[in-house]
Amino acid sequence: MQHRALIVGISGVIGSALAERLLEDGWQVYGISRGRTPVAEGSISLIADLASEPSVRSALQGLQVDRVFFAAWARQANEQENIRVNGAMVRNVLHTLGGTLAHGHAALVTGLKHYLGPFDAYGTGAVPPTPFREEQGRQPVDNFYYAQEDELFAAAKQFDFSWSVHRPHTIIGYAIGNAMNMGVTLAVYATLCKHTGRPFVFPGSAMQWHGLTDMTDARLLARHLEWAATRPGGQNEDFNVVNGDVFRWQWMWSQLADYFGIEAAPFPDSPQPLEHHMQDAATQWKAIAARHSLREADVDKLASWWHTDADLGRPMEVMTNMSKSRKAGFLDYQDTRDAFIDLFELLKAQRIIPA
């Protein structure tokens, strides 16, 4: 039987990787998004305001799918608004599909802020010890991830479908205009350093520089989502999902510098957040884009300085345990250095950064 999937947020870094994976495996793929960026060739694009129930109902009217994947969120001014808007996005889709999803599956992608707390209260509570394990549960703070989970659980019970929750670490993948994209941000930063003589300084904390960490390749996450949606071991469970290796940024930073042919600057005496230090990047990037005939001259559509600062500026160790997935049957692995290099090569091929 050919599976029919709806990807919520199909044009993002997760959704685009998932669409390519499912299409390659013969799925019929529909994608719902705001319609601002292209979707994977072969998928069917649906446009809606996910926070508006009438808009979602209009876009999904008559749609028959057996799998739904949530890979989208909308950043709001505070966590209460995040809860209201992002919880509604899940509810609007699942209640619109309703009984048509019976005996199917819905997968929700959240992240490690499940353990760390949301941006409003980031790491201020009693962060559980690393590596994070699924059984450590929720933090005693408001968190839109929990609201999304609750909407998923309630709809699964009401409409009789299975569910899975996926918690990646920082994602490496290809997407333009994505608000949470460290890989593209670091590629833009390294390119600016190479072409302007700016030192390639690690912008984050001493803990991140010296401590162990891990990351998630969007392609591995796509395989994890497909696995959970089609295997009994993945049903009605929550999972961490990372590449399977660990590293220290003091090593990885030099690897990134070597790739771009620049020198990694010594670790600074204090954090050097990109959002503060890259205020002249827009003019510099426009000149680089013109000189090399790049596709995108607006650096703000490529780099998410604030999100990379948040990830690299963490004052605590952040890494996860994958035992639950391994025991359930998911054994895939991705080398993180290779994930960065694969992305950089694709960015060159797509004329996003200079070759």
From TrEMBL:
<protein>
    <submittedName>
        <fullName>Nucleoside-diphosphate-sugar epimerase</fullName>
    </submittedName>
</protein>
<dbReference type="InterPro" id="IPR036291">
    <property type="entry name" value="NAD(P)-bd_dom_sf"/>
</dbReference>
<dbReference type="Pfam" id="PF22917">
    <property type="entry name" value="PRISE"/>
</dbReference>
<dbReference type="InterPro" id="IPR055222">
    <property type="entry name" value="PRISE-like_Rossmann-fold"/>
</dbReference>
<feature type="domain" description="PRISE-like Rossmann-fold">
    <location>
        <begin position="65"/>
        <end position="354"/>
    </location>
</feature>
